[in-house]
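Anyone up for a design puzzle?
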């Protein structure tokens, strides 16, 4: 390393650093220099200390450090309904009694509070970058929540042009395209602003071929991904075969939208030919293990996530929504993806801890078109960094950093979270807002929303 006493803003020293760089270096006694929100240098302390002059220095005393997690698929406006879905509800009751009334009733203020709670949770669990799946009905309140917490996030509105008799979900094709253009102009891809829009469609057969083709053109022109749900349930497959005589991903290939900027979410029910098509196109997939497990979708035993990875497809991780997984916690997702597939197949390893960590960081950035900016701790990349506490038993004895992180520490030991070099979480607390006051607002709004949509808040087990 050749640094001529470079002036930097912050120098983190004596950290156990999982860099996620091309060599996958782990620095047992490492340092990271940060200037103007980016990583100016990273390397062993003995090389860095004499070469860098820092305005501030922080001794990490051996704490584990890694790039910020990436949650590549969430629905931030549903957090006010977390816990409303009882385990005994079949899927049709969830849709008819909770989700449809929510869609009809939720206000911009409630969307803001829901997104605020979701962003707070992600930040405190070590997520620094996320992508909403286009779930908002008013994107501005969601965007304001992202800015307030200090995360880096993609937001979007719900768009579909196949009529299903639900007025708030449907727009004609030309209106969907106009709305995409408006959102991309209002929130262009600007990582300094931290909030921007991609092209987000509902997918699952709810977009016409014309909308899919034109949306892909807009995504490519604006250098953002096109993301949508895909191959999620049996009916979607049946409908595609009946309508086109082809499986869903085969149809996407036929209409010419497979490619590096297309990111497909879920992809539970796919066959080998569809995996090959996605791999050959350079597309990405987002795996939502916690959501599948909670609702019994079967991804661990009928899904093909290990095969997708073996085919070279970047498979990222997503939390989905609060009534599908009930938490936005990428550390937990990494644990699940490293374990559930080997349990279903009775094969060890199937997905290793190292691969799970790649899915939680690098593959997430590829799915969101951010691989050059975040996802690893390398010179020139943005200083999105997670520092873990040593004051938790899960952090010890510290023999294997990756195994410790994925299997033991996960998000339980997150102490400090930096985005662009600025701490949005310090000592396990948010620095950007009053969490206690926000929780009070959220709790009140959630109960009022539940009342309006007619949900009984009495739990199945209750006392006097």
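Challenge accepted. My sequence:
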């Amino acid at each position: 390393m050749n640094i001529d006493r470079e002036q930097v803003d912050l120098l983190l020293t004596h950290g156990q650093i999982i860099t996620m760089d091309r060599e996958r270096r782990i620095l047992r006694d490492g340092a990271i220099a940060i200037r103007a929100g980016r990583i100016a240098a990273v390397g062993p302390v003995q090389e860095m200390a004499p070469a860098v002059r820092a305005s501030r220095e922080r001794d990490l005393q051996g704490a584990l450090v890694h790039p910020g997690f990436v949650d590549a698929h969430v629905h931030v406006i549903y957090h006010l309904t977390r816990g409303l879905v009882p385990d005994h509800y079949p899927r049709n009751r969830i849709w008819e009694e909770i989700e449809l009334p929510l869609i009809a009733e939720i206000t911009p203020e409630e969307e803001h509070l829901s997104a605020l709670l979701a962003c707070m949770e992600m930040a405190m669990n070590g997520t620094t970058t996320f992508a909403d799946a286009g779930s908002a009905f008013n994107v501005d309140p969601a965007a304001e929540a992202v800015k307030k917490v200090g995360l880096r996030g993609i937001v979007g509105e719900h768009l579909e042009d196949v009529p299903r008799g639900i007025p708030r979900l449907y727009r004609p094709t030309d209106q969907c395209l106009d709305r995409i253009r408006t959102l991309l102009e209002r929130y262009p891809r600007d990582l300094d602003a931290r909030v921007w829009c991609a092209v987000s469609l509902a997918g699952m057969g709810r977009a016409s071929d014309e909308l899919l083709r034109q949306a892909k053109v807009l995504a490519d022109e604006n250098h953002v991904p096109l993301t949508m749900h895909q191959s999620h349930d049996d009916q979607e497959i049946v409908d595609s075969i009946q309508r086109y005589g082809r499986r869903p991903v085969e149809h996407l290939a036929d209409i010419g939208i497979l490619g590096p900027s297309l990111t497909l979410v879920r992809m539970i029910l796919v066959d080998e030919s569809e995996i090959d098509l996605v791999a050959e196109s350079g597309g990405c997939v987002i795996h939502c293990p916690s959501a599948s497990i909670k609702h019994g979708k079967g991804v661990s035993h009928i899904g093909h996530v290990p095969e997708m990875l073996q085919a070279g497809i970047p498979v990222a991780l997503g939390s989905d929504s609060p009534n599908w997984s009930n938490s936005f916690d990428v550390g937990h997702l990494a644990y699940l993806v490293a374990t559930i597939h080997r349990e279903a197949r009775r094969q060890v390893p199937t997905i290793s801890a190292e691969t799970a960590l790649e899915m939680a960081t690098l593959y997430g950035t590829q799915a969101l078109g951010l691989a050059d900016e975040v996802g690893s701790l390398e010179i020139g990349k943005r200083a999105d960094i997670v520092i873990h506490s040593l004051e938790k038993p899960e952090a010890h004895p510290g023999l294997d950093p990756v195994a410790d992180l994925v299997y033991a520490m996960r998000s339980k030991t997150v102490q400090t979270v930096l985005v662009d070099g600025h701490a949005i979480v310090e000592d396990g607390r948010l620095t950007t807002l009053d969490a206690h006051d926000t929780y009070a607002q959220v709790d009140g709004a959630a109960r009022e929303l539940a009342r309006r949509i007619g949900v009984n808040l009495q739990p199945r087990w209750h006392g006097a």
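A detail worth pointing out: The chain has two domains: 6-67+378-430, 69-367.
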